[in-house]
Design goal:
This protein is an alpha+beta fold and 206 residues long. It has two domains: 1-24 and 184-206; 26-183, Jelly Rolls (Sandwich), CATH 2.60.120. The chain has helices at 2-23, 186-205; strands at residues 25-27, 41-44, 46-49, 54-57, 64-72, 77-90, 100-107, 122-127, 132-134, 137-138, 142-146, 154-162, 169-182.
Length: 206
């Protein structure tokens, strides 16, 4: 009987811990692209399934290859993040403007950018030349933007590959792991603490 009680306590602790971890992350629909492009809209150009990521390629008829999604920023939102990898082939003609990948976040009701950077729509800009400009942070792979001031807003997220067919290079971009990290609700944190406390009591009883 005693062993069964301990097993039940451990099972409950595990459930509470997982609940706490899950409460800390609110995914954008299909942000890992495991379901292809479900939940996303290809508005222009050429954006296809990787698989397991979104692949942006230069388009012969559209200057921009554009992928978008409208979602509600959670009330306890902390950061928007995504992984990006750009690759190019060819020899760049410096007399031409460079291919560039951009990310923008708008209030879907007003159309105003949610980037804390007046006068600039995109919060992330990267050229195939290596130039990167962002109002967030970029570690070479992962882009992170503070969205803590925009909780509860309906947002329009836009990813663009702007390509110049005459610059001598062909550029593609892999996009993956698009998500919103949120602050765990107090109730979830309390449940997690109760779970860990129960584990500690069980260990002392042993």
């Amino acid at each position: 009987m005693k062993n069964k009680t301990h097993l039940k306590a451990l099972a409950l602790c595990a459930v509470l811990f997982l609940f706490t971890v899950k409460a800390g992350l609110a995914d954008i629909t299909n942000g890992d692209f495991s379901a292809g492009l479900t939940g996303w809209t290809v508005e222009y150009g050429t954006v296809t399934e990787g698989p397991g990521f979104a692949l942006f390629e230069e388009d012969l008829f559209e200057q921009s290859s554009t992928l978008t999604q409208i979602f509600t920023i959670p009330a306890l939102a902390l950061e928007l993040s995504f992984d990006v990898l750009m690759s190019s082939t060819g020899t760049y003609d410096t007399a031409e403007w460079a291919d560039a990948f951009m990310a923008s976040l708008y209030d879907s009701s007003t159309g105003f950018p949610l980037d804390n950077n007046p006068g600039v729509d995109d919060f992330f800009y990267m050229e195939h030349t290596g130039l990167v400009e962002t109002v967030g942070s970029f570690d070479g792979t992962k882009v992170t933007l503070d969205v803590s001031a925009f909780g509860g807003l309906d947002a329009y997220l836009v990813f663009d590959l702007w390509s110049n067919l005459y610059d001598g290079v062909e550029t593609s971009v892999n996009l993956d792991n698009v998500n919103i990290t949120v602050i765990p609700a107090p109730g979830a944190l309390l449940l997690g603490l109760i779970g860990f406390s129960a584990v500690g009591l069980w260990r002392r009883s042993k």
